[in-house]
Every structure is written in C-alpha cells, then in structure tokens.
Amino acid sequence: MKKTLIVFYSRTGNTKKIAQEVAKLVPGDIEEIIDEKNRNGLLGWLISGMDAFLKKYTSIKQPEKNPSQYDIVIIGTPIWATNISTPIRTYMHNYKDGFKNTAFFCTSAGDRPKDTLKIFKDMEKLCSKNPVALVSFSQKDVKANSFEKIKEFAKKLNR
Ligand SMILES: Cc1cc2nc3c(=O)[nH]c(=O)nc-3n(C[C@H](O)[C@H](O)[C@H](O)COP(=O)(O)O)c2cc1C
Q: ∠ CA(105), CA(98), CA(17), 5° rounding?
C-alpha cells in the first residue's frame, strides 16, 4: 500500500470538498494549507487575484505532515487568475524537494480545459515531477456533487 498525502488549499470550500472525496477512494493523510494572509471578502478576492497573477508567495502555517515521508503527494488548488493559488504555490516551492511522486487536482469557476492544462503544467514545472494522475472540476461539478471523474484518478493512484 502506497503511503499517500493529500494536500489542498481552499478559500471557499470547493477544493476542500474534492480533497475529501479523493480521500474516500485513495486512503491517506490530509493536510489543509492555511494561509496567514486574510483573503476574505471582496478585498481578499482582489488581493488574491493580484498575488496569483504576480506569482507571489505568502506565509503559510507550518504543515503538520512531512511530505518526504510519503510515497505520493496529491496536491489540490483552486485556479486564481489563471494561475496556481498563492498558498499552494508557496507550499510547493517550500516542500518540493521532499516529493517522491505527485498527482494534481484543481477546481475553477469555468470549465476551460486550456486553463486547467496550463495550471497542471505550471505545477509540474514548479516541483520538477511528472504527475501520476490529474483531474479537474468546475464549480458546477462541485455544487452538483458530480465526482465521477475521481474514480479514474483514484484508479491511476492505487495502481
Ligand atoms: C482571486 C480568484 C481568482 C480566480 N480566478 C479564476 C480564473 O482565472 N478562472 C476560473 O475558472 N476561476 C477562477 N476563480 C474561481 C475559483 O477557481 C473557483 O471558485 C474555485 O472552485 C474556488 O475554490 P475554493 O472554494 O476551494 O477556494 C478565481 C477565484 C478567486 C478567489
């Protein structure tokens, strides 16, 4: 059995929901990334968009789990301004040297495969690791509890 860590950041709950659904099919530990910057409200939204666009880093709470102790680290992010969310960019930048294998998932407002592909490529570049599996969800999927795609994702991970 592979030792698996599921890491995610979620500002409004969509990515958290997917992380929880992934955990149902891929047994492992979960780590929620907590940003120390206030990203609430309209101002928080604007700041977050700008931070992501400028590929900035932020200050995140010290994670509880050490990713280097896992065979695979599954990382989930919301899309922000067609970029990786700033807290996940920070986590990947800080801990990438410990990743053995990776898989990625993301959530977004729209359902634009081009944007999703770009995010996954950016994540791959950030940690120099080819992901074992990828999956993306629109807000609509999350609201409709449409999680079918996770089965295929989990199959690749549990192989
Ligand atoms: C600052 C900001 C920028 C966003 N930019 C995009 C975007 O470029 N494209 C998109 O499809 N969704 C965008 N979204 C929507 C989020 O990706 C989407 O609502 C996501 O599911 C939120 O995940 P969460 O609930 O886990 O925080 C943006 C949201 C925020 C807060």
A: 25
Site to substitute for ligand 1 among 18, 79, 83, 147, most atoms within 8 A of C-beta: 79
Q: Which domain holds residue 15?
A: 4-158
User: pTM of the full predicted structure?
Assistant: 0.97
Distance CA(82)–CA(108), nearest Å, equals 9
Q: What is the mean pLDDT of residues 89-107?
A: 98
Amino acid at position 133, single letter: A
Count the domains in the chain.
1
Residue 96 region, left (φ>0) first, then alpha (ψ -120 to 50), else beta? alpha
Task: Check pLDDT > 80 for residue 44.
Answer: yes
* Atom number, ligand 1, closest to the C-alpha of residue 137: 21
86 lines ligand 1 (CB under 6 A): no
Does residue 136's CB lie within 6 angstroms of at least one atom of ligand 1? no
